[in-house]
Amino acid sequence: MKVTFPQMGTMEIAVKTLLEELGLEVIPPPKITQKTLDLGVKHSPEFACLPLKINIGNYIEALENGADTIIMGGGVGPCRFGYYGEVERKILEDLGYDFKMIIVEPIQNDWWGFYKKLKLLLTNISWFNLKQAWQRAWAKGTAVDNLAKTVNQIRAYAQDRKLAQEMYEQALTEIDAAKRIIEIEKLEQSYQTELKQLPQRQNFSPLKVGIVGEIYVVLEPAVNFAIEKKLGERGIVVDRSLTLTQWVKEHLYLGHFKDETKHEEIKEAARPYLQHMVGGHGLETIGETFLYAQDNYDGVIHLSPFTCMPEIIAKSILPRVSQDLDLPVLSITVDEHTGEAGVITRLEAFIDLLKRNHQKGEVI
């Protein structure tokens, strides 16, 4: 069995470790390129979400490289992600590929059902072996998320911003190669220290920008044009509202392990504008935007794929949130036709607006 999975941000580091620790041969799809996108667009429904199209491109490239089993997440609720797996399975079967697809649904107290899913992958797996593999993968996912948060906070202040990015990328490479949890923890601690000790700019007052939206577009640099890096190199402190480990806690485990205090805080913040779940991260987009305003952020960037229903709902509400809170919000919707030059132009205009507002605040 040769297993693959979709690309999404730094997810490969943790998922590859989990599967390899369970004794599987893993064939990750190549990093997302224009070829990946072209393959997905060619073989996917025109009005499908961009993430589905890229998933198809990922799978075709991985299957052509020898993979024979695809692991895909499932979902519940109004977001179309819930049936991605079945649609993708049908597309690939119609293309003539011979493969097995295992769709991992949210557990929802059905731990035995989850265990049986794993049995499709592994015929002789114990809970103990699964626990050990999960702990190593989780340690990597947590370390990567923690370092991403740190570099997004530190990069703007660094005298050499490109060096901060290079250190982060080197950390990812070393964490990916690490074999033991203690090694992973030491690497994270070491890079945390090095990043925080970088020479900093003096008398520097950076802008602060929060990023909200649909998780795939928020996490995948190939889709959002590496927006966190671009903002950081322009001297902006960035906070991304979504992380991979947070998504796993909420999506796979649902209420078992997620931070209920934070979840309730987001729901309460969104309540004046949106009182119920609309699928995906639509409610979180509104709530997190409100919280960024409370934390004195200068602006918020909202990222979403074209035709994403939960984020369309959020996008229709954000102008009122922006007006009520006097918080500039830039919504960027992406599909296969979105060009990097156009996104950068909008981003720079938004940054200019934030700088003017920031300077007015300093004068007052």
Essential attributes:
alpha/beta, Rossmann fold, 3 domains, four-stranded parallel beta sheet, 16 helices
Protein architecture, described:
With 364 residues, the chain is of the alpha/beta class. The chain folds into three domains: 2-125, Rossmann fold (3-Layer(aba) Sandwich), CATH 3.40.50; 139-205; 206-364, Rossmann fold. The chain contains 16 helices and eight strands. It has a four-stranded parallel sheet, with helices on both faces. It has a four-stranded parallel sheet with strand order 6-5-7-8, sandwiched between helices.
Note the topology:
Elements: E1 2-4, H1 11-21, E2 25-26, H2 34-43, H3 50-64, E3 69-73, H4 84-94, E4 100-104, H5 111-121, H6 127-154, H7 161-177, H8 181-196, E5 207-213, H9 215-219, H10 221-224, H11 227-233, E6 236-240, H12 244-251, H13 260-270, H14 282-294, E7 299-305, H15 309-325, E8 329-334, H16 340-363
Parallel strand pairs: 1-2, 1-3, 3-4, 5-6, 5-7, 7-8
Backbone CA Rg: 21 Å
Number of strands: 8
- Cα-to-Cα separation, first versus last residue: 65 Å
pLDDT under 50 segments (min length 5)?
A: none
CATH class of the largest domain: Alpha Beta
**Structural class computed from helices and strand pairing:** alpha/beta
Summarize the structure.
This protein is α/β, with parallel strands linked by helices.
